[in-house]
Amino acid sequence: MTTAPGIGIIRLGQIAINVKDLERATVFYEDVLGLKLLFKAPPGLAFFDCGGVRLMLDRAEKPEFNHPSSILYFVVPDIQGAYAKLKGHGVRFEDEPHLIAELPAHDLWMTFFRDCEDNVMALMSEVAR
Length: 129
Description:
alpha+beta, 2 helices, 5-stranded mixed β-sheet, 42% strand, 4-stranded mixed β-sheet, 2 domains, 2,3-Dihydroxybiphenyl 1,2-Dioxygenase, domain 1, globular, 16% helix
């Protein structure tokens, strides 16, 4: 594995997602998205495993941190099936799964949705040709 020049970053270790209601968000990420809850910690944190990257749900402690999160792109093998399942759970989508790019070995598909805290998230799938 190569490291980035400079300070030696090897990989992404954790992503923080701002939430207003930690319990509601924990249920969404665990029960709706199906991520494994690793642990909860006081005063109001929840940690999930997402393919080896830790997602941390946290209430913003300062006004400057109280904003929507970055877009997380969740890789799924079957974007149509994942879309249908999340729609069945009442998840609000911004669009339907659509082709982004035709690449040499696969087609890249995406769809965007809102989590229970109104953060924009995405599903992506690389469909072999």
